[in-house]
């Protein structure tokens, strides 16, 4: 038979559809819980407070969004989901089964990552909608959704790339998210733009408005136009997927699964 | 179909395969790749299936270098070692994806999946997830994924590992059938009996070197200095008296009711032995070549290179 080689688009579509059922397994529900746990908990607390006659605090939704979802849960979601992408095939030694096909290898990381992106994005949108129940400003909702989905796209892609570049990709990713990102408050303007936090805040509104001046450290906070911030997140994600594909395309990956590491 | 010209493979400082040269012609048939663990079998198969590029020399399959080469990869199928498959997926859906990655689509894809499943006898169990399959079933699915696009070259790395005897025989019959239908099959094993049951044509690897190539008989002829052992059953004393007069005799030992001869050039001595027995010149009841098999060849060759 020896059919013609599939196109990159057909490769991405086939891989995404083939691996889509994986998101309905344990790891997928962990992702869902990572979003819904902080949102659900705050909705519960808000509901109890309301029953006792307390009013909603408009800053509460902003706090949960920035402190809970963006700073904590999004990075953890990326750290949880990315190893289930192409890295999983590398570690489980099932990658040769894919690489021995005539399909372009560079399209495989994106194809395997797309179901996880779609699943995580769906729950993040649900989470953003849930924040409306605790007094979220409706005018900020589109910006929050775009910020969450854009950051999820970029962070998942980054972790996929790091997972192909380094044997201990999860560790490097965790160091980036939990050591580098928090430094945004003391970074000079140029370095602020090299964080997800900066672009998320540009899209969704800054938490800095809720923080007293004495809590902000030395540097001036810069802003980026929301459209540019969204473009930066999407472009960065696309670049990471492309680099992950390039890495896989050029790296020999044998049956032992160790050749591509490090 | 396959040609290696001083192709070698290194894993950093470790030599996986020494510069190796050989050719396999077009057409069907089974070639066994034989060697102990660590001999370089998987290294060679990874070169041929395009998973790894050679560190030196040249590998050509269907006229092209196979590494990330769709034109070559669309004509070969690989069954890697082990029974690992992506967790949590259904076999039929996974095979559908693998078919799409091989360039199949539409009715052709559906027919290819059905045909591959029928070939490996898994048509009625393809709806199961891999976690619910036995090792033998998973091995059949792994074979099915390699057959989807009807490759002209099928490469199997240690396919019999972990299979029960029945599954082993089924797989052997399947491989013979595929070979009879024109597929060139290259199968590796470290178990000599498996290869001997499948084919007479072998490539023998040891410590990253291709030691020998050809049929068992051809390889045995290369080993002039290793006498062949023949057990002659009958009146041992009389048989021994006849044997010591033969110029090909290298050694002799007596057993109960038999004599074991180590002889050079068995092709010369065997006709005389048969003639003497037929004429009643020697009291011979049975003749058993003890080491004219794959195990013996393997032992001799690896002993020389150890």
What does this structure look like?
The complex is a heterodimer of chains A (262) and B (306). Chain A has 11 helices and no strands. Residues 213-218 and 257-262 of chain A have low confidence and may be disordered. Chain A has one domain (8-250). Chain A has helices spanning 8-19, 26-51, 58-81, 86-91, 95-99, 108-131, 141-165, 169-180, 189-192, 196-204, 226-250. By secondary structure, chain B is an alpha/beta fold. Chain B folds into 2 domains: 2-221, Rossmann fold; 228-305, Alpha-Beta Plaits. Chain B has 11 helices and 13 strands. Chain B has helices at residues 41-48, 70-73, 91-101, 106-119, 135-147, 165-180, 192-198, 216-221, 236-243, 266-278, 294-305; strands spanning 2-11, 14-24, 29-34, 56-61, 76-79, 153-157, 184-189, 201-206, 209-215, 228-234, 249-255, 258-263, 284-289. In chain B, the strands form 3 sheets. In chain B, strands 5-6-7-3-8-9 form a 6-stranded mixed β-sheet, with helices on both faces. In chain B, a hairpin with a 2-residue loop joins β8 (201-206) and β9. In chain B, α3 crosses α4 (106-119) and α4 (106-119) packs across α5. The mean pLDDT of chain B is 86. Classes of the chains: A mainly alpha (262), B alpha/beta (306). The A-B interface holds A 1-6, 10-11, 13-15, 17-19, 21-22, 25, 88-89, 92-94, 96-105, 249, 252-255, 259 and B 11, 42, 45-46, 49-53, 67-68, 70-71, 73-78, 80-82, 84-90, 93-94, 96-98, 100-105, 108, 112, 142, 145, 149-152, 157.
Give a brief rundown of this model.
Chain A has about 260 residues and is an all-alpha fold. Helices cover about 65% and strands about 0% of the residues of chain A.
């Amino acid at each position: 038979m020896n059919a013609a080689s599939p196109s990159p688009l057909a490769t991405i579509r086939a891989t995404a559809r083939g691996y889509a059922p994986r998101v309905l397994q344990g790891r997928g529900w962990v992702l869902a819980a990572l979003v819904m746990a902080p949102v659900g908990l705050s909705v519960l607390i808000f509901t109890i407070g309301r029953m006792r006659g307390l009013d909603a605090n408009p800053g509460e939704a902003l706090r949960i969004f920035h402190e809970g979802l963006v700073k904590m849960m999004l990075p953890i979601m990326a750290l949880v989901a990315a190893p289930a992408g192409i890295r999983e095939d590398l570690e489980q030694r099932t990658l040769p089964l894919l690489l021995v096909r005539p399909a372009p290898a560079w399209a495989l990381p994106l194809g395997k990552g797309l179901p996880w992106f779609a699943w995580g994005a769906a729950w993040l949108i649900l989470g953003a909608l849930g924040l409306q129940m605790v007094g979220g400003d409706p005018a900020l909702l589109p910006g929050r959704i775009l910020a969450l989905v854009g950051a999820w796209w970029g962070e998942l892609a980054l972790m996929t790339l790091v997972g192909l570049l380094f044997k201990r990709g999860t560790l490097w990713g965790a160091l980036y998210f939990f050591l580098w990102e928090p430094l945004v408050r003391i970074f000079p303007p140029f370095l602020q733009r090299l964080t997800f936090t900066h672009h998320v805040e540009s899209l969704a509104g800054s938490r800095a408005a809720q923080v007293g001046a004495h809590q902000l450290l030395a540097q001036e906070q810069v802003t980026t136009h929301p459209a540019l911030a969204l473009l930066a997140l999407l472009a960065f994600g696309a670049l990471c997927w492309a680099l992950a594909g390039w890495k896989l395309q050029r790296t020999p990956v044998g049956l032992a699964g160790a050749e591509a590491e490090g | 179909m396959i040609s290696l010209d001083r192709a070698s493979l290194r894993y950093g400082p470790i030599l996986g395969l020494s510069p190796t040269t050989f050719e396999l012609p077009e057409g069907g048939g089974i070639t066994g790749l034989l060697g102990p663990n660590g001999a370089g079998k998987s290294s060679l198969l990874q070169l041929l299936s395009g998973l790894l590029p050679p560190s030196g020399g040249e590998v050509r399959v269907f006229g092209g270098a196979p590494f990330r080469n769709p034109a070559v990869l669309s004509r070969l199928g690989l069954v890697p070692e082990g029974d690992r498959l992506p967790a949590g997926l259904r076999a039929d859906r996974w095979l559908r994806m693998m078919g799409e990655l091989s360039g199949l689509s539409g009715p052709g894809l559906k027919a290819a999946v059905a045909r591959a499943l029928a070939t490996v006898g898994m048509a009625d169990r393809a709806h199961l997830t891999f976690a619910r399959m036995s090792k033998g079933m998973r091995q059949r699915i792994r074979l099915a994924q390699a057959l989807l696009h009807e490759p002209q070259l099928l490469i199997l790395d240690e396919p019999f590992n972990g299979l029960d005897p029945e599954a082993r025989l089924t797989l052997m019959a399947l491989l013979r059938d595929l070979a009879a239908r024109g597929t060139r099959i290259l199968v590796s094993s470290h178990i000599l009996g498996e290869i001997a049951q499948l084919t007479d044509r072998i490539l023998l690897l040891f410590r990253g070197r291709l030691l020998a190539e050809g049929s068992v008989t051809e390889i045995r002829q290369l080993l002039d200095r290793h006498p062949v052992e023949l057990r002659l059953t009958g009146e041992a004393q009389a048989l021994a008296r006849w044997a010591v007069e033969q110029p090909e005799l290298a050694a002799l030992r007596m057993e109960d009711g038999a004599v074991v001869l180590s002889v050079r050039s068995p092709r010369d001595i065997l006709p005389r032995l048969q003639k003497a027995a037929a004429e009643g010149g020697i009291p011979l009841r049975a003749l058993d070549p003890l080491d004219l098999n794959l195990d013996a060849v393997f032992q001799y060759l690896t002993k020389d290179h150890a």
